[in-house]
Amino acid sequence: MTHIARRAEELRAQIEHHNIAYHQLDTPEISDADYDALVRELRAIEADHPELAGDLSPTHGVGAAPSALFTPVQHRVPMMSLDNAFSVEELEAWARRLERLADGPVTYICELKIDGLAMSLLYEKGRLVRAATRGDGRTGEDVTANIRTIRSIPAGLTLDNPPDQVEVRGEVYMPVAAFEDLNRRQAEAGARLFANPRNSAAGSLRQKDPAITATRDLSFWAYDLSAPGGVERMGFVQHSQTLEWLAGAGLPVNPEWKVLTTVEEVHAYCVSRQEHRHDLAYEIDGVVVKVQELDRRRELGSTSHAPRWAIAYKFPPEERTTRLNGIMVSIGKSGKATPFAQLEPVFVGGSTVGLATLHNEDQVRLKDVRPGDTVIVRKAGDVIPEVVGPVESLRPKGSKPWVFPTNCPVCGGPLVRLDGESDTFCTNFDCPGQRIQRLAHFASRGAMDIEGLGEQRVIQLAQAGLISDAGDLYSLTEADLGGLEGFAAISVANLLAAIETSKDRPLANLLAGLAIRHLGSTGSVVLARAMGHLDAIEAAGPEELAAVDGIGPTIARSVHEFFASERNRVVIEKLRRAGVSLAGPAGSDVPQVLAGKSVVVTGTLEGWSREEAELAITSRGGKSPGSVSKTTFAVVVGEAPGASKLTKAESLGRPILDEDGFAVLLETGELPA
Ligand code: IVH
User: Fold this and answer.
1) Looking at 277-286, 337-346, 572-581, 646-655, which range is the least confident one?
2) pTM, rounded to two decimals
3) Residue 486 predicted with pLDDT over 70
4) Are strands 632-637 and 656-657 parallel, antiparallel or unpaired?
5) E strand spans, 418-484
6) Ligand 1-lining residues (CB < 6 angstroms)
7) Were 326 and a residue from 172, 316, 342, 381 both cysteine, which residue would form a disulfide, CB within 3.0 to 4.6 Å?
8) Relative to the CA of 310, which ligand 1 atom is closest?
9) 665, 672 in Cβ contact below 8 A?
10) Is 333 a catalytic residue?
11) 277 secondary structure, DSSP code
């Protein structure tokens, strides 16, 4: 066997295997993008070597044979698949070829490609009589009882004179919120988590007991119709008439469809849908571009597996598979031990991902990801990258579940998880890991804003034995810093000046910088305003603190405990002696230029963390809510902004600012000229 023939064999076996995993077991082992790559490679080989194709190649079929769980249903008209275009060039090549082949003018109709599962609904005299999955395209599974539990699928068409028989085709899907809700419930019950809305829709539909399906919030979009003798018998000449008929018959039709005349317009539609894909309540993985004229469709015909008159423009993948090289634990400023995945770097969702948080012990256990596993990594929109789960079939033999370490990786002290809490902590206050994080946090922009004192410098100073808490910063001298590597005279002077300047920061910044558990930037502002002086906060009992509007009992208790600790008192004493300002509500120090204004921040800013930007807004009297509304004063947009916030801002005509504009806004309270 030649090398090529062997590769084709190998690809065929892999594709068949993944078809079964995806279509029958609802447990895909590789991402759609990786699957598509296998199919493309096999297609390319078969195109160059037609002798290798044979009738049995999976490139001819669609999906997998139906499982034995449901009664098989023969589709009267096969349910075909679609060819894919993975780039604008491929899309244009398809359109040019089609315009060449067609006998007359072609216009296009674009629809969203819903990421669910294809469904055939048979209506006789207007009544739903049978619902079937696609299966292998010829034979599907009878899922009528389950489909009847879906509210948006009408049992009867709302037509005065319904046709004797029509078959409606469309996509069953699970809205993102329902998927998240379902996974929350699954987690609570200790049950298996679904990888994505598509899998959970498939899993919910493939239930022997329709009562279970009924508890899953499934929905449906109709996108096609077939009738005996063709829909032309119903007088249709264009696909848009089909969509209008479906909507008129009471079926849900996705409203985003659009008729376009040129390839350029189609291209622009695809790009804009891609940009806004996360604004929708459901997932889409591309745009389906179809020929609008039904007689053109007839002329163009189909290949063995897909029509020539339609193509799926696929968005770049947001899920990829990669190797999980290891699971490490990082120690935060409060001692929180957070597990994170070290991944073989993979390009996904527009950037290369090498690290991803695993949140806490329970998340790792639920996902059961283990070092050495092949895992699915997801990065959607401006969401932080996430490890979805392992590909269990590719798990190395003899691997064992990962166990959360019992000791802190930095100081070796015990890691403690309290009953009823999901987080684990290093309880050693002197842990160098915690200390570094506390110091770096103290110096950060949302806190004391000490320019030039980032994490690396903090590590350097701590390792040189110069600082162990925030109080020590204020006794650093020229002589201390002069001898350190990388500290030229000028940087010594700059750092000392920056430390000096920080003494006058508002109380809210100081409070935020102390890294008191549960007390975030907003709480710091509220507390500073209400109490006016650090001494007053220190002296207050938990009830007095909780009486402050906006401070709950958890924060109050935590603040009280913080100041009750001897260690913390020592640090505060150092600050006091160094002349750090402990007084003053934020209002008296920072002009309240944003009073009554609401400023939304989205995306990553270069010079500010999200927390810092929000504190900058709230300490000036403004609000920084998580969503845009018509009362939003301005929206500050960084790298990779949330598409929904951006669109909302645009549609409501709210001013959009970049980082420079944000600086002007903070300074003046007004929009930049
Ligand atoms: S038309 C012969 N329209 O994508 C053409 N399909 O990869 C039949 N899909 O099997 C499909 N949204 O499950 C069409 N607006 C849409 C669609 C759509 C999602 C799915 C469908 C199909 C698969 C092809």
Assistant:
1) 646-655
2) 0.65
3) yes
4) parallel
5) 424-426
6) 80-82, 111, 113-114, 118, 171, 223-224, 288, 307, 310, 312
7) 342
8) 5
9) yes
10) no
11) G
| Other Cβ atoms within 10 Å of 157 Cβ, number | 20
Architecture in CATH for domain 2-60: Orthogonal Bundle (1.10)
10 Å CB burial of residue 649 (0-12, 13-18, 19+) is: buried
Over residues 125-142, the pLDDT tens digits come to: 999 999 999 998 999 999
8-state DSSP, 20: I
Pick the atom of ligand 1 nearest to 312's CA.
7
Fold of the 598-668 domain: Rossmann fold (3.40.50)
What is 319-424's CATH topology?
OB fold (Dihydrolipoamide Acetyltransferase, E2P) (2.40.50)
Residue type, 232: E
Amino acid at 74: Q
Q: Could you tell me if 195 and 388 are in contact, meaning their C-beta atoms sit under 8 angstroms apart?
A: yes
CATH 2.60.40.1270, applies to 72-85+108-314: no
Instruction: Give how far Cα 233 sits from Cα of 44, 108, 200, 268, 403, Å.
Output: 39, 22, 38, 34, 65
Three-class SS state of 19? helix
What residues form DSSP beta bridges with 583? 533
List pLDDT tens digits, range 360-411. Answer: 999 999 999 999 999 999 987 667 889 999 998 899 999 999 999 999 999 9
231-272 pLDDT per residue, tens: 999 999 999 999 999 999 999 999 999 999 999 999 999 999
